[in-house]
Design brief:
The chain has about 160 residues and is mostly helical. It contains seven helices and four strands. The chain has a two-stranded antiparallel ribbon with strand order 1-2. The protein has a two-stranded antiparallel ribbon with strand order 3-4. Helix 3 crosses helix 4. InterPro entries: DUF1677_pln.
């Protein structure tokens, strides 16, 4: 029986030491990658960085921008390649960076939320099943809870 070796907080016996050491080396091989669209920096392994660069034509794209590129492809009215969608998104990011901070962040946030709401309302509805029931406006209004009486008289009676 081999003597246990202590690596980090884990106790590992000698035959397992080689695999544990390779795991520790692999964990330390982390690089910082900067998104070519938005400039966000992420910690990634070299293998992951290479996979992303292969997928996006030599550019490294963060997860958020990758989702935006996918959304650009889906929302396009004509068939768009990944490269075209990425160019469109990179152009958007460039314009956004150049615009600088908004003069009134609260108004800017409200405007952004309004745009998101408009987009979600304009998007086609997707149901889980074709025959799933939908509520009509009258059903929605009928299901609203109403208060039968005020609770204030009860509170003031106890104070007097």
């Amino acid at each position: 029986m081999s003597a246990p070796m202590i690596i980090d907080p884990m106790v590992i016996s000698a035959p397992e030491t080689q695999s544990a050491a390779s795991i520790l080396v692999a964990q330390s091989e982390v690089e910082f990658a900067v998104c070519d669209c938005c400039g966000l920096t992420e910690e990634c392994t070299p293998a992951y960085i290479e996979r992303i660069r292969e997928r996006y034509h030599g550019k490294w794209v963060c997860g958020l921008c990758a989702e935006a590129v996918k959304d650009e492809i889906v929302r396009s009215e004509r068939l768009v390649s990944t490269e075209e969608a990425m160019a469109k998104h990179m152009n958007f990011c460039k314009k956004f960076k150049a615009s600088g901070p908004p003069p009134n962040p609260t108004v800017h946030l409200i405007s952004a939320m309004r745009q998101i709401l408009k987009r979600s309302l304009d998007s086609p509805r997707v149901r889980s099943t074709p025959n799933s029931p939908t509520k009509t406006i009258t059903e929605i209004h009928a299901s609203v809870l109403t208060r039968s009486e005020s609770c204030f008289p009860t509170l003031t009676e106890g104070l007097g």
